[in-house]
Amino acid sequence: MKGFDDVMSNVGSHGPYQRRVLLGIICPTSILGAITMNILLFQVTVPDHWCHVRGQENTSYSHEAWLNLTIPRDIKTGKLSECRQYRVEWTTEQGNRSLIVHNDTRGTVACLG
């Protein structure tokens, strides 16, 4: 009985049949699979997002309370605004840092950070 290497040397390792299989079946299948997986990325819905307002780490507010304080809500839907925030100012008086939030509709600005 001949060994595998002997058989492969007689048969040949890469001939026209292998090229046809590679170019005709394997390459198109791989390309279509990759396209299908990438299409899924573009069909996913956009998650809820809003501005990041710096300064929460300097307060004792929870994340939800900080969002309610610094991000306005849309009047029609009641959701947090995705592109607007209230003007937030940090002031220092006699070594104490205090927070001033201008949370009226005229005090909103585009996302700053």
Structural features, described:
- It comes from Penaeus vannamei (Whiteleg shrimp).
- This is Solute carrier family 22 member 7.
- With about 110 residues, the protein is of the alpha+beta class.
- The chain folds into two domains: about 5-45; about 55-110, no CATH class.
- Helix content is about 40%, strand content about 20%.
- It has a three-stranded antiparallel beta sheet, with no helix packed on it.
- The model has no long low-confidence stretch (mean pLDDT about 80).
List its traits.
single chain; 113 residues; alpha+beta; 2 domains; three-stranded antiparallel β-sheet; 3 helices; 3 strands; 39% helix; 18% strand
Task: State the secondary-structure class.
Answer: alpha+beta
Please compute the radius of gyration using only Cα atoms: 31 Å
Shape: elongated
- The percentage of residues in β strands lies in 15-25%
- Uncertain runs with pLDDT below 50, 5 residues or more? none
Q: Give the strand tally.
A: 3
Largest beta sheet: strand ordering? 2-1-3
SSE arrangement, N to C? HHHEEE
Distance between the termini: 74 Å
Structurally, how many domains make up the residues?
2
Largest sheet composition: 3 strands, antiparallel
Give the helix proportion (percent range).
Answer: 25-40%
- Mean pLDDT metric: 80
The count of helical stretches stands at 3
Transmembrane segments: 21-42
Keywords: Membrane, Transmembrane, Transmembrane helix
Organism: Penaeus vannamei (Whiteleg shrimp)
Protein name: Solute carrier family 22 member 7
